[in-house]
Write the structure tokens for this entry.
Amino acid sequence: TRHDGSIGAVTVLPEHRRKQLGSFCVAALAAELSGETMVLIDPANEASRTMHAKLGFTNTEKRFAWARFK
């Protein structure tokens, strides 16, 4: 499978969470990548899964990966 871009595990320090910093960073990075963008997500991290879903990423059903297609 060919992927045009991927985003690794984005982490926001606890004292800066709930300020939409993660959303801003992931959206900006995804906008810079062309085509399919894969992101690494821990399936147990509900906050991350929710954030990525709001940004338009869809679950690929693979462990730790969601994809967003442009």
User: Anything to note?
Assistant: The longest helix spans residues 21-32.
